Amino acid sequence: RKEVEQDPGPFNVPEGATVAFNCTYSNSASQSFFWYRQDCRKEPKLLMSVYSSGNEDGRFTAQLNRASQYISLLIRDSKLSDSATYLCVVNMGYQKVTFGTGTKLQVIP
Amino acid sequence: GAGVSQTPSNKVTEKGKYVELRCDPISGHTALYWYRQSLGQGPEFLIYFQGTGAADDSGLPNDRFFAVRPEGSVSTLKIQRTERGDSAVYLCASSKGTGDTGNTIYFGEGSWLTVV
């Protein structure tokens, strides 16, 4: 089993739609969690951290479920500019940081 | 500059040659990471430095790959006897690495390596 797993997609959604991605992780001792965004041929950039209590940043909401070992990202009112690959990132402790394969999102006009 | 700097940005080399990729992290960041990313894949962990020492090199694929960070700042990833399968973008990242596992990791733009 991979340490961090994501559905690669692509998710093709119309503008204005709500879309959600999940990511599962295998190490129950994992300590911190993030979503990164990566545009084509660019480096990954931090989108948001994920906290146990859940957190929201504008149209983006991240959730962590430690019992089931998954994190989620919800995007509301999708924009064309949201088209990118979304990478789930898990810090396994001692700064070992593992990335998922990424979920590709394409927002369609 | 304020961000992570990587050189060269692009490198084309012949199979069997030796390659060095350089990373200059954000000033003051003690943690430095190397990742490799192939088309359609997420970044694959190679090695992590805390200061000058390699805290975790479990991701290096074989003994042709080696990385150093002699003064705890700039790091060099060295690849010997390159193979076509080594073609990928090599991403360097850094973080404050103070022990707080919530530290944000910042990436450079990557070094795009093509082995022909």
Describe this structure in words.
The complex is a heterodimer of chains A (109) and B (116). Chain A is mostly beta strands and 109 residues long. Helices cover 0% and strands 54% of the residues of chain A. Chain A has no helices and eleven strands. In chain A, strands 2, 4, 5, 9, 10 and 11 form a six-stranded mixed sheet that branches. A five-stranded antiparallel sheet of chain A has the order 1-3-8-7-6, with no helix packed on it. In chain A, strand 4 (32-38) and strand 5 (45-50) form a beta hairpin. Chain A is globular, with a radius of gyration of 13 Å. Chain B is mainly beta. Chain B contains no helices and eleven strands. Chain B has strands spanning 5-7, 10-13, 19-24, 31-37, 44-50, 53-56, 65-68, 75-79, 88-95, 106-107, 111-115. In chain B, strands 2, 4, 5, 6, 9, 10 and 11 form a seven-stranded mixed sheet that branches. In chain B, strands 1-3-8-7 form a four-stranded antiparallel sheet, with no helix packed on it. In chain B, a hairpin with a 6-residue loop joins strand 4 and strand 5. The model of chain B has no long low-confidence stretch (mean pLDDT 92). Chain A binds chain B through residues 4, 6, 8, 31-32, 34, 42-46, 49, 87, 89, 91, 93-102, and chain B through 31, 33, 35, 40-45, 48, 50, 55-56, 91, 95, 97, 101-110.
Computed CA radius of gyration of chain A, to the nearest angstrom: 13 Å
| Unreliable residue stretches of chain B | none
- Radius of gyration of chain B over all CA atoms, rounded: 13 Å
Structural class by secondary-structure content of chain B = mainly beta
Largest sheet of chain A: 6 strands, mixed
Multimeric state: heterodimer
What structural category do the secondary elements of chain A indicate?
mainly beta
Mean pLDDT of chain B: 92
The number of strands of chain A is 11
